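Technical note accompanying the year-one report. For the benefit of new consortium partners, we illustrate the data format agreed upon in the data management plan: each record pairs a sequence with a structure-token string. No post-processing was applied to the example shown here.
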Amino acid sequence: MNEIVTHEPQRTQQEAVRHGVSLLTDHDIYLFREGSHVRLFEKLGSHLIRVDGIDGVLFAVWAPNASAVSVIGDFNGWNRTSHPLKPRLDSSGIWEGFIPQLGAGTIYKYFIHSNQRDYAVEKGDPFALRWEIPPRTASVVWHHDYEWQDQHWMAERKRANALDGPMAVYEVHLGSWKRVPEEENRSLSYRELADHLVEYVHHMGYTHVEFLPVMEHPFYGSWGYQTVGYFAPTSRYGTPQEFMYLIDRLHQAGIGIILDWVPSHFPSDQHGLSYFDGTYTFEHMDPKRGYHPEWKSYIFNFGRHEVRAFLLSSALFWLERFHADGLRVDAVASMLYLDYARKEGEWIPNQYGGKEDLDAIQFLRQLNEAVYRDHPDTQTMAEESTAWPMVSRPTYVGGLGFGMKWNMGWMHDTLNYFNKDPVFRKYHHDQLTFSIWYAFHENFVLPLSHDEVVHGKGSLLRRMPGDDWQKFANLRTLFGYMWAHPGKKLLFMGGDFGQWDEWNHDDSLQWHLCQFDPHLGLQRWVRDLNHLYRNEPALYQLDFQEGGFAWVDCHDWEESVIAFLRRGYDADDTLLVICNLTPVPRQNYTIGVPHGGWWSEVLNSDGEIYGGSGIGNMGGIEAAPTTSHGHYHSLTLTLPPLGTLLLKRTTSGI
């Protein structure tokens, strides 16, 4: 508990609210008004402190256009007049007050009366560390006392999060990963997930887990993307400490954690940020800038300094207090463009007449500079769906400063290609090869995310063409191609064992399918891909550099075959990847290679253990001194149907 010794005249313990007590310094106010404060969570909100030897809670809230603010809750019978806060005299718009004899677990809201008109409203605390379980809407006084056990991970995580390290991300929605049907189909708690989820991720060989937004959200069906509590994990699954325990366990198992974070918009729920003090406090006044027509939510006013400080503090909060290893920033495109999801006449150009949101650009650069300044061993990732240049380039060269960017173009082209019947694929060969033309323009993550298995799109397995055997073979080939392609990997839960049904946030994944051989084989394939990927530097060290990739043959559209090399820092460390995208086995197929000697078949997606037909090359083949594809040696291979082969040169065939 924080302890403050005041220099105010002695007050009696019975006094309802003590004024003149503050955690804010003049420097804090300066940074807040400048928009550069990144630790407001230490100053605003509710804080357990001791004043004059008396325990209680210090409240501080930003409501610049309020005429009166008070704290209401169970402790005072929701009385709107008994516990008023006082405005600071520095014109910051912050209201403060210390209420004695309150403790952790106190349920509260702010009652705010606006000075703009006869408007009053009950609001949750924007800086609350905990909220009631929805649909209840009050904030909860809380603390972050927790003894972390992940010191080794934190000391070494720079290597795990490095751009030249392996990153295979398992994307998870906490509420639907696994449920308990015997108990009214309830979701697992944070503590239960710490046992089951950590074991599964470790077994499967993923390097990181990415959670869909865990920040408190009133509507479960928003998957967390309509955030209210920017400083609180949802109470649906437990306390903040129990969420810390889940992250702690992941770290102890050598698994990184990425949090989905939503600074682009917020919901209109009355207890949230919208119209906070009777004015457009966090959002723009004009709906052409302040309201999102697609999502029916409000857009942050990135040009307001205090709003930028609020969001910067939220980002740094999750990295510091919860030891997150990265933030995936949602809907960046909606922030960059003033005309996003708007028709002609429904948006306001910037000062130069363009459609770029200059305030949002400045904020994103400021965000990334703050993250990498204070936590250089973490990463930020942008979900940016357009061709905006230099998203993952440093701000000092004109970039937005993100560490990585989701490759939405690769995702769309690849899924469109694999959705086609193999007989027609040769006419769309460029959809498979085009991504390499721009693969090194950004630091890309290859995502097959939750967005690709909802809203009638069907599961990944269901979207594959052919009979059931071909569907599984196609999906194994897709994953093999994806894991070998330059870029980090992200796969949404359920895809790795071939869930048949589209993802439903109200149901558990179809874990019972794993008892059937085709699903179990697919799961083994993803596990083995992960383990090979982590153990082969050629598959990740030069993900973002042209030297890490070379085509062997991208022109065999007639037979729908591609072949390429992956390389690491060691030029001799080379992997050959071949994909046959038709159900026809290819016999005596010649592929040029840069080295002679024995090439081991390290993975074959058509292996019987994966549910394939068992067609392959008996574990490997000796390179012949025959020129092919510009190389002085070549391999004469059998290509399995709808299969991916990965071969590596070794010293012998033993």
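Partners are asked to follow this layout when depositing records. The chain has a mean pLDDT of 95.
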